[in-house]
From TrEMBL:
GO CC field: mitochondrial intermembrane space
Enzyme class, UniProt record, top EC level: oxidoreductase
Keyword Mitochondrion carried by entry: yes
Main location: mitochondrion
Record organism: Antrodiella citrinella
Name recorded for this polypeptide: L-lactate dehydrogenase (cytochrome)
Location(s) in or outside the cell: Mitochondrion intermembrane space
Documented EC number(s): 1.1.2.3
Record-level Gene Ontology MF annotations: L-lactate dehydrogenase (cytochrome) activity; metal ion binding
Length: 491
């Protein structure tokens, strides 16, 4: 780029049509319609929330890089501030002080109020009738504690290791996509907070920030895992995985429950988020559906042919521990162990894939039994994780007592940084820490190794019609699905 000429704004404006289309951008915004919308103009603001910053340099041929721009000659695109945006900014200014946030539900309430409508729809949506996303939460409330008393709990320790890596909590930050839809710094909020708090971050394939930007923002010795959607082009996947390993990532979590993304109707009702709603991994790909919400727009590169026969190939291209993310039955847990995986995540993708799939917590019961019967569990070289529905440290302790090594938490940390940035994530981790201290003392567990199945009563977990007290905080934050609306302008 240093050898290319410097362009001026008026020069670029002369190329503002389909036949000769130049745009100014930190990177291009993606999609022909959005490119033409910004033809001859500066499109940076439309691009940055939804693309990693290296998408152009990675994917666009060098001969398409026309040169640098003399910014003093550029007429900026005037962004119209809508009434909705003014209201959103007013709500941002009126947020509760962070000191007033005392649980994960509080973050969700604030995020729902301050996020743009389309961002909230993408983050909060789940598949079909959203039965599973609600069941994920309710499952934990069908498990009851059996606390032990008169144990010395003057000092309690909730630190652990996950895939052999030290963690200050038995919780890792699970992968969530497109962080910049909710905060300008996107996933970097998670990275910086995780570094300060000693928590492991799982980097999402579909992060808004580039993989290298996240790694570059890390503290010395900070631990990362990588969540992988497998690309139809396996060479792209191979390069991505091996690059991650070279940069020090400590675990590869392959998503195995998404041969196709589920119908997330809250997101779909937003229709077309923008032609820019894409991911780095699908730059230059044709036939990307962008009229069915963000999820469909960013997922068309995922390979539906992924199968058990591919696991040996993954083992051949990396020395990172391989964890299969999205196991939903004991049968597949056994196959994962026998295929040589180092771990599994019992997950239904946050309720975003197959609706009425069971919660990871419920699946944990049958998985532990099946693995024990075959002598596969417990095994220091094979770990079980659970994600979905966790809002309290007490939820985590229930999963650990039933056999999980650690628990993944996604949306609560996402909502924390959407509402309050890095400080929000740090506060969320501190809330977990405070709850661990209290709950472990009340449960009679001095360390996580003291947790055992006898400390919980999970007899009602598999009963899907059980009367329990309503979780008012969850019900007050859950947004019910909507139905098709009449066009008010026609009435």
């Amino acid at each position: 780029m240093s050898d290319l000429r410097v362009l001026t704004g008026p020069e670029v404006e002369q190329h503002g049509n389909r036949d000769s289309c130049w745009i100014i951008v930190h990177e291009h915004p993606g999609g022909s319609k959005i490119i033409l919308k910004y033809a001859g103009k500066d499109a940076t603001e439309a691009y940055e929330p939804i693309h990693p910053p290296d998408a152009i340099t990675t994917n666009l041929p060098v001969d398409k890089h026309l040169g640098a721009i003399d910014t003093s000659t550029v007429v900026k695109v005037v962004k119209e501030v809508t009434e909705a945006e003014k209201q959103r900014q007013a709500l941002m200014d009126a947020r509760p002080p962070l000191d007033n946030i005392i649980n994960m539900h509080d973050f969700e309430v604030v995020a729902k109020a301050v996020l743009p409508e389309k961002a909230w729809a993408y983050y909060s949506s789940a598949s079909d009738d959203e039965i599973t996303i609600r069941e994920n939460r309710l499952a934990y409330q069908r498990v009851w504690f059996r606390p032990r008393i008169l144990r010395d709990v003057s000092s309690v320790d909730w630190s652990t290791t996950i895939l052999g890596q030290k963690s200050s909590l038995p919780v890792y930050i699970s992968a969530t996509a497109l962080g910049k839809l909710g905060h300008p710094d996107g996933e970097l909020c998670l990275t910086r907070a995780a570094a300060k708090q000693g928590v492991i971050q799982m980097i999402a394939t579909l992060a808004s920030c580039s993989f290298d930007d996240i790694i570059d923002a890390a503290a010395p010795g900070q631990t990362f895992f990588l969540q992988l959607y497998v690309n139809r082009d396996r060479e792209i996947t191979r390069k991505y995985v091996q690059h991650a390993e070279r940069r020090g990532v400590k675990g590869l979590f392959i998503t195995v429950d998404a041969p196709q993304l589920g119908r997330r109707e809250k997101d779909m009702r937003m229709k077309f988020v923008d032609d820019g709603a894409g991911a780095k991994v699908q730059e230059n790909q044709k036939d990307v559906k962008k009229d069915q919400g963000v999820a469909r727009a960013i997922s068309s590169f995922i390979d539906p042919s992924l199968s058990w026969k591919d696991i040996p190939w993954f083992k051949s291209i990396t020395k990172m521990p391989i964890v299969l993310k999205g196991i939903a039955t004991a049968e597949d847990a056994i196959l994962a162990y026998e295929a040589g995986a180092q771990g599994i995540v019992l997950s239904n993708h946050g309720g975003r894939q197959l609706d009425t799939a069971r919660s990871g917590l419920e699946v944990l019961l049958e998985v532990v039994v099946a693995l024990r019967q075959r002598g596969y569990f417990p095994n220091p070289n094979f770990e079980i994780y659970v994600d979905g529905g966790v809002r309290r440290a007490s939820d985590v302790l229930k999963a650990l007592a039933l056999g999980a090594k650690a628990v993944g938490v996604g949306r609560p940390f996402l909502y924390a940084f959407c509402a309050y940035g890095q400080e929000g994530v740090e506060k969320a981790i501190q809330i977990f820490r405070d709850e661990f201290e209290m709950n472990m003392r009340l449960l009679g567990a001095k360390s996580l190794s003291d947790l055992e199945p006898e400390m919980v009563d999970a007899s009602a977990l598999t009963q899907h019609v059980v009367m329990v007290p309503q979780d008012n905080l969850y019900q007050n934050t859950y947004q019910p699905l909507a139905v098709a609306q009449f066009r008010s302008t026609k009435l």
